[in-house]
Amino acid sequence: MWPLYAxxxxxxxxxxxxxxxxxxxxxxxxxxxxxxxxxLALYDGAEVVLKPLFGTLADRIGxxxxxxxxxxxxxxxxxLYVMADSxxxxxxxxxxxxxxxxxxxxxxxxxxxxxNPAAKHGRAxxxxxxxxxxxxxxxxxxxxxxxxxxGLRLLFAVLAVLGAAVAVWAAVAVPVVPPLPKAxxxxxxxxxxxxxxxxLAPTAALAAATAALSVGVGFLPVSGRAAGxxxxxxxxxxxxxxxxAAVVQPRAxxxxxxxxxxxxxxxxxxxLATAVGLACAMLPGLTGILLGATLIxxxxxxxxxxxxxxxxxxxxxxxxxxxxGAAELGRELGDAGGPLLVAAVASLTTLTHGFGALAxxxxxxxxxxxxxxxxxxxxxKPGADT
Length: 386
Fold this sequence. Notes:
13 helices
């Protein structure tokens, strides 16, 4: 399992480590806000398009080859900019990294499910999410240190070495998990399965959690600056968010496996905590920022392992890659949609109203989850209430 956790860390560290340093440390390559936005969108755009495709490929040929190929491609794409060091090759390297992460991220999730019995899925996905959260937390910090010490090329060099090292580790330690025989699936069959509440409910919760996480990381520092807080204070607030998410995920997974928490209750509580956190972010000053960061972190920490465990439990084993790829697509849409919603509302009113708008959307999801208790218990099988 450890190489799979390392793969999760790699994609998170690569995404946030570079994204957090492009704007302030790459004047030769980032010549305008439009260029910066394009470079930031390139990684996520590749994931939106390719994750479902690579997830389906993992089901067809096995998740392990797709995992290894993605990690090797990630290392190669990172090394490309190290060798070329030009603005044009930065675009190519960033696109290559996003495409490679699209391969090894859903494959790692599928292997987490395949290599653990259903009774331990909560723990497994909780630990996987923990190490991804560590990557999100350390990415901006270590990325900034590396760029300060040796420029953007040094950061890409470290990512190349990291990707290659994890690929070798996975090749040695991850067992061969052959693809399972499966019945022929038509496009209509796929559409029906992805429209099933057993897929839509946890995926929607995962998308909401990712939207709130992205908004917290991106916009809480803006609130801090508006309140006269320095970069140290606002950076600490973002670290509180990521830290809470990292701490809660393994505990939520263990509680699910031990029967102390159900997927329905956990997802609903996570959505409620996230919505309340966004509402707290509307409060002025450091108090609102810290309360918002803490509750958003707790909420996303509850949702992430429970959502993936529910998907794994309600998916035929031979279709796990496809399901994880589709679920990752939902998360990417949340990652983009949350900030867009907050920014659109804030541009017309204020950032406070932007937080409130996303809180209302996610809070509505929590209310629906609580109101439809019996139907949710029927579709979210693992640990469902009786």
